[in-house]
Specification:
Number of domains: 1
Low-confidence stretches: 1-11
Protein name: HxlR family transcriptional regulator
Strand content: 15-25%
InterPro entries: HTH_HxlR, WH-like_DNA-bd_sf, WH_DNA-bd_sf
Mean pLDDT: 88
Domain HTH hxlR-type: 22-119, 181-269
Helix content: 40-55%
Number of helices: 14
Organism: Umezawaea tangerina
Keywords: DNA-binding, Transcription, Transcription regulation
CATH class: Mainly Alpha
Structural class: alpha+beta
CATH superfamily: Winged helix-like DNA-binding domain superfamily/Winged helix DNA-binding domain
CATH topology: Arc Repressor Mutant, subunit A
Radius of gyration: 19 Å
Distance between the termini: 49 Å
Number of strands: 11
CATH architecture: Orthogonal Bundle
Order of helices and strands: EEHHHHEEHHEEEHHHHHHHHEEEE
Largest sheet: 3 strands, mixed
Amino acid sequence: MPPPPSVSEDVRVTDLPAGGRNPIGVALGLLGDEWTLLILRHALQGVRLYGGWMRELPISNAVLTGRLGRLTELGLLDRVAYQRRPERFEYRLTRRGRGVWPILLGIWSWELSWVPRYTEALPGMRHQVCGELFSPVLVCGACGEPVGPRNLVGGFGPSGTWERSMPSATTRRRSSGAQRAGFFPQTTALVGNRWSCALLGAAFQGTRRFSDFERQLSAPPVMVADRLRTFADLDVMTPDYRLTAKGLAFFPVVVHTMDWAQTWFRSPEGPAMVYTHRTCGHPFEPRYRCSVCAVRLRGGAIDRVPG
């Protein structure tokens, strides 16, 4: 068994075992789970108490306890006593936990723009700075220019292989209860399966042929065919395996997930993914700006507007 991850207290980065899952694989294993995303969404809205999540979500005690424990173990939440007699605890977001807001914002925006049907109305977004309804625009952190997948060059770094970048096969991905909670159903179809994660990443890196998907992912042909069929049914990929406009629009979620993963987790061999912005030549760091006022977005400056 590999040693458990250790946290470097000086920089609060989790050191991963050599040769194991790289930061991308760890992040996808965590954030590809619907319950985890739901818990984090409510945490960012201010929920801290166990009972608060139980009231908000159709979740069992066992599942909530397990997910909160995992989020605490990986440093996204701090379990803090707020009462001694009887002893009671709350779960506070850490900097690492608050850092997932661009990922959730990207999912929110993508589903709002591209998925017309919901079991519950998805709220719109209002930017507190300009007071307007907006969409987040992905930009380069160095030069501020808008960025799409074709504006970047690069790929796998020293720890970046397909095998190491995939979430563990034992990671639980799907949950009918979470789906009934009304959270972003098409997003979980894209990232809620280990093969879907890898195939989507390969597509963004330019893979276009069935045989190439099969070879790069070392995946069973039946699984590749099933995932490609699912992507086509969702209209994120064409029948000839090219990303559609809807598929390309998911790019901000992908790059913010990679950025968050490599900010907080570290493989000893080096980065899993390395990208450079073609326009300015700087290492790419994803940021969002408001589509209306062009001010850089901050997590605490966005309001939900009922649909």
